[in-house]
Amino acid sequence: MAEPTVRVSGTVLASLMFQHLNSDSDVEGLVLGEGRIEEQVTISDSQADHIHIEETYNVQKHIACHRLNTLYSSTGDLNMEAVQKMLVDNKRESVIGWYRQRRNTEQQMTLREKLIHENLKNVLSNPHMIFLLLTPSKVTPSGSTHRMEYSAFISRSRRFVNVPILITNLGLLEQLAYWKVSTSCSAAGYSLTMKKHGSRFFSSDGLLKEVKEVNSMNESLQVELQKSCRDVEESERLVEALQAEVSSLRRRLKEKQQKEATEEPEPVRSSDQRNVRLQESVSSLSCCPLFCSQTLNLQGFPLPDVSTATQVNADSPPANRNRKRPREEPMGGDRKRRRS
Amino acid sequence: MSPEVALHRISPELRPLLCNVVRNGRVGLDSTNCLRVTDLKTGCTSLTPGPCCDRFKLHIPYAGETLKWDIIFNARYPELPPDFIFGEDAEFLPEPSELPHLVHWDAGNPECLLQLVKELIQQYHHYQCQRLRESSRLLFEYDSLLEDPNYGHNMEIYAGRKNSWTGEFSARFLLKLPVDFSNIPVYLLKDTALDPGEDVALLSVSFEDAEATQVFPKLYLSPSIEQGVVEYDAEGFTKLTLLLMWKDFCFLVHVDLPLYFPRDQPTLTFQSVYHFTNSGQLYSQVQKSYPYSPRWDGNEMAKRAKAYFKSFIPQFQEGAFANGKL
C-alpha cells in the first residue's frame, strides 16, 4: 500500500507562516509543486521480494487568496473563474493541493473544507490532491508562547487520511539509503541561470556531459577488454595445441626408445653408403640438357652439343633411334658453322 | 461559561447569532437545557483589541450524549457563513443540499445559526440511523419503533463506536414518551424568570451489544414533572407517588404495581397532605377496584386513571375533612 508523505522546504513553510502572521483572519490558497510515486523493490535472500510504494508530494510554492471565500460558495462549490485567475502565471498541472491556516482551532478538517477538497479534485482532475492545514494557537494565557501545528490530509474513498509533513531541510539524514534527488526548482531565477549556463555542463538529454564522456570511455574500455580477452583466448588455445603436440612427440620418442632397447642392434651402414634414389634423381637431372653446360652463340642462344645429342640418342627408346632429330634453325642471326 | 460571559466576549457582529443560540437554543427531544457554549476563541491576532472571539464549542444534548461541535466564524468577515468540526464524528459529512440555511446563509437573520444547527442535528440523526445497519438486531428495533406513530418522529439514535478491544457495537435510543401532563401542578421555582421548559418524559434505552442481550433502560423527567412526581422506583418502576392538586386541594396518590402487572390491577392509595388520623398518620384511602383492564396500553391506563381521579377526588376530600384532623 502507498505511504504518502508531504515534503515542504523550510522556506515555503516560513512563507506560509509569515503570510498568516500578517493577517487578521484565516487565510487560504493554492499549493503548487510536484507529486511522485516511486516503487521500491527490496530484494532479500531470506524472504520474498518486498514491493514498497512511496507517494511523495513536494510543495514548492503557494499562491494566497486575497480574501476568504473567493474560490468557493457557502456549500463548497468552486468558482472556476476565480481559480483560473489565480493560476494565470502558473500551470494548472502544477497545482497539487490547497491550504488553509486558522488560529485556535482543532487539527481536523471542517465540513466545508472536506466539500471544497472533493470538488477541487474533480474540477482539476487530480485524485491526489493534498490539503495543508496550519493551526497556530496560544499556549500560555500571557501569549509568551505560541504553537504552530501543521499537517496534511489526503482523500481516499471519501475518507480523509492524515499525512505527515516533512521539512526537507530539517532532520532528513537518510544515510542508510541512496539519496533521493528532490524535484527541480521552479523558481524563475534558477531556470534563467540554468538556461544560460546549462549547455556547458549538460547534454541535450539533461545528463551531465562528464557522465556521457565517462560512459563512452567505459564503452571503449569494454571493447578493448573484449579484444584482449579474445587474444588471450587464442593464445591459450595455441599453447594448448603445442603442448598437446609436444606431449605426443615425447610419447612417440619414448615408445621408440623403448622399442629400440628391446630389439637387436642393426649393422652399421658405411657412411659412404649410397642413397640409390638420390643417385637416380641426380642422374636423370644430369641427362636433361637444361641442366647441362651449353655453348651459346653470340646472340645468346644455345648451340647443340654433339656429345649430349649422342647420349640422348643412346638413352632414348629404340623406336626413336633411327629418326633424325629435326634441326633447329636458330631464329635470326647467323648460324655458327660447325666443323665435323 | 455562562451565556452572559459568552455574549460579552463574542465579536459584536456575531453577537445576535450567538444570543439566539444560547437564549432560545432548545433542540432535540431533551429541550430542558439550552445549548451551551464553551472555549470561546479568536481567529484574529493577539494584538487585535477585543471583543473579537469568533469561534467556539457548542454542546448539544443528543440521545443522552453531548455532542461537542466546533463552530468557526471569521470576525474580520462576519457576513461569511460558519464552518463546523464535528468532534469525534469525523466521518459525518452531511449533504449541503439538505442544509437550506447554509445554502442561503443570511448573516442578518439572528435565527440563521440556530436553524442551521437544527438542520445539522437532523442530518446527524440520519447518519446515526445509517450506522445502525452494522447490527441487524438493533436495526430491527429501530424499524419497529419507526412504524409506531407515537415514537416514529420522537426518537434520537446514537450508534456508538465499536470497542476497539472487544469489537462490540453499542447503541442508545432516546424516546419521548407520549404522556399528557396537563394536570400536573404549576412548577414552583425559586427563580421565576427561569423557564423550566416543556414537560417531557424521556426513556433512554442503552444496548450494550449488537445482539441486544444487555439492555439498560432509564427514565428522564423534565423538572416540572419531577416536581409533580414525589418519588418513584427508579430500578423496577413498580411504585410511583404523585403530588396532585384539584381545586386548590393537594393530595398524594401512591401507585403500586403488583408483581404480575398488568394481569393484576395496580393499587391506588390516596393520601391527604393536610389531614391526620387518630394514630398520627396522614389520612389515606386505598382503592383496588376501579375501572381497569389489562388489555389497555400504558397511555389508556393513565388516561383512565386520570378520569378516575377526577371522579373520586371530591369523595376523598369529603372523607378527609370528615374523618381527619388538620
UniProtKB/TrEMBL annotation, chain A:
Indicate, by first and last residue, each region the UniProt record lists as having compositional bias (Basic and acidic residues): 255-275
Location comes to: Cytoplasm, Cytoskeleton, Spindle pole; Nucleus
Q: Which GO terms describe its biological process?
A: attachment of spindle microtubules to kinetochore; cell division; mitotic spindle assembly; protein K63-linked deubiquitination
Family according to the record: Belongs to the FAM175 family. Abro1 subfamily.
Provenance organism: Amphiprion percula
Q: What keywords would UniProt list here?
A: Cell cycle, Cell division, Coiled coil, Cytoplasm, Cytoskeleton, Microtubule, Mitosis, Nucleus
Q: From which domain of life does this come?
A: Eukaryota
Q: Name one Pfam family in it.
A: MPN_2A_DUB_like
For the keyword Phosphoprotein, the answer is: no
Protein name in UniProt: Abraxas 1, BRCA1 A complex subunit
In the record, what terms sit under GO molecular function? microtubule binding; polyubiquitin modification-dependent protein binding
Q: Where is this region: Disordered?
A: 253-275, 308-340
GO CC annotations?
microtubule; nucleus; spindle pole
Q: Where is the MPN domain?
A: 6-154
- Coarsely, its chief localization is cytoplasm
The record's listing under Gene3D superfamilies reads: Cytidine Deaminase, domain 2 (3.40.140.10)
Automatic annotation (TrEMBL), chain B:
GO MF term set: polyubiquitin modification-dependent protein binding
Task: Tell me which domain of life the UniProt entry assigns to the organism this sequence originates from.
Answer: Eukaryota
Pfam families in the record, alphabetically?
A: BRE (PF06113)
**Alphabetized CDD domains for the sequence:** BRE
In the UniProt record, does the keyword Nuclease occur?
no
Which UniProt keywords are present, listed alphabetically?
Apoptosis, Cell cycle, Cell division, Chromatin regulator, Cytoplasm, DNA damage, DNA repair, Mitosis, Nucleus, Repeat, Ubl conjugation pathway
**GO CC annotation:** BRCA1-A complex; BRISC complex; cytoplasm
Q: Name one GO biological process term.
A: positive regulation of DNA repair
Is Lipid metabolism a UniProt keyword of this protein? no
- Compartment(s) where it occurs, according to its Swiss-Prot or TrEMBL record: Cytoplasm; Nucleus
Q: Fetch the InterPro entries from UniProt.
A: BRE
Q: What family is this?
A: Belongs to the BABAM2 family.
What is recorded about the protein's domains? Contains 2 ubiquitin-conjugating enzyme family-like (UEV-like) regions. These regions lack the critical Cys residues required for ubiquitination but retain the ability to bind ubiquitin.
Subunit structure, per the record? Answer: Component of the ARISC complex. Component of the BRCA1-A complex. Component of the BRISC complex. Binds polyubiquitin.
Main role?
May play a role in homeostasis or cellular differentiation in cells of neural, epithelial and germline origins. May also act as a death receptor-associated anti-apoptotic protein, which inhibits the mitochondrial apoptotic pathway.
> What protein name is recorded for this chain?
BRISC and BRCA1-A complex member 2
List the lineage, top down.
Eukaryota, Metazoa, Chordata, Craniata, Vertebrata
